[in-house]
Automatic annotation (TrEMBL):
Protein's name in the database: Polysaccharide deacetylase
InterPro entries, alphabetized: Glyco_hydro/deAcase_b/a-brl, NODB_dom, Polysacc_deacetylase_ArnD
Lineage, uppermost ranks: Bacteria, Bacillati, Candidatus Sysuimicrobiota, Candidatus Sysuimicrobiia, Candidatus Sysuimicrobiales
SUPFAM superfamilies for this protein: Glycoside hydrolase/deacetylase (SSF88713)
Residue ranges occupied by any NodB homology domain in the UniProt entry: 57-258
Any one GO MF annotation of this record: hydrolase activity, acting on carbon-nitrogen (but not peptide) bonds
Pfam families tied to this protein: Polysacc_deac_1 (PF01522)
Length: 300
């Protein structure tokens, strides 16, 4: 079966599961979701960072920590043990990989100690992934629609929850399912957040086949790539196994790893500090870059 056909089949399975169980999921990306086949790559946009245009062989592994009210209910009722896989975190720690987690407000509330441990880990960066992982458009991979006029409240609730529990103020926001409607970019930016999606969707959501993830990422990763995974658990059962192969394979090809901010600092920070706005896909004030340029995230 071709990879594309496999991806389509996986998408249909995932939608059926999501519709039946209210699971959160993120497969590929569709900035203007249609009823046809999902796009596997996010479309570049002046307002959305999907890749950082550098030539150095450095990539950012990013992980979505989804949590819908339906997922929380299934955990509290004992149907699901956990919505993340500790093995994923173990592999990342063992390999000393800096990474960015896009965490939902509900996941932060559900796992406060884990969220704080991310905040205290110098290799981990936290981004905002909405509060309830509802879709910001009515047609987004079977996710429940957030409702008209509810976007700002949801994003702010997540931001305040993450700040209150971890002490970290996220700089970046990732839309659940990668779906956004007219006006959503302005809402996010007006809250002081920048939108970060991906150029490589690992395709690990509901995918039990580690080999397909390994080959998909291996074929597409390039300098400056932002690679989107999930933190594992029942909605990403093969992520840990895939990472065990992907990390050494990329290293063997000369790649290093950093956070999203780390990628941006490679583009924006000279030896003496910020080099100004060059070719960033979105504008950042010099003030926003003082700290990252002074204290550059590790590249390992
Ligand atoms: Zn998600």
């Amino acid at each position: 079966m071709s990879r594309r056909r496999f991806g389509t089949r996986l998408f249909l399975i995932a939608c059926a599961v999501a519709a039946a169980g209210g699971l959160g999921l993120l497969l590929g990306s569709s900035l203007s979701p249609s009823r046809g086949e999902p796009r596997e790559e996010a479309r570049p946009s002046s307002a959305i960072l999907t890749r950082v245009p550098i030539s150095a062989k450095v990539v950012a592994l990013t992980f979505d920590f989804d949590m819908t009210p339906g997922m929380l209910f299934r955990m509290q009722s004992g149907e699901v043990e956990a919505w993340y896989d500790p093995t994923v975190l173990h592999v990342l720690r063992q390999e000393r990989i800096p990474y960015t987690i896009f965490i939902t407000g509900l996941a932060t509330l559900t796992y406060p100690d884990l969220a704080r441990s991310f905040a205290h880990d110098r290799l981990v960066e936290l981004g905002n992934h909405s509060h309830r992982h509802f879709a910001f458009t009515p047609d987004c991979f079977g996710l429940p629609f957030i409702g008209e006029g509810r976007a700002q409240e949801d994003i702010e609730t997540a931001q305040q929850t993450i700040q209150r529990i971890t002490g970290v103020t996220p700089r970046y926001f990732r839309f659940p399912g990668g779906c956004l409607g007219a006006g959503d970019v302005a809402i996010v930016n007006n809250l002081g957040l920048r939108i970060v999606h991906w150029d490589v969707a690992a395709g690990d959501a509901f995918n039990p086949d580690a080999d397909s993830i390994i080959h998909y990422v291996g074929d597409r990763a390039r300098p400056g790539s932002i690679i989107a995974f999930h933190l594992g658990g029942p909605n990403a059962p093969a992520t840990a196994d895939a990472l065990r192969a992907i990390i050494p394979s990329l290293r063997a090809h000369g790649y290093k790893f950093t956070t999203v901010t780390g990628l941006l600092s490679l583009l924006e920070c000279g030896a003496k500090g910020p080099v100004g706005r060059r070719s960033l896909p979105f504008s950042l004030t010099p003030a926003a870059w003082k700290a990252p340029c002074r204290d550059k995230p590790p590249v390992l």
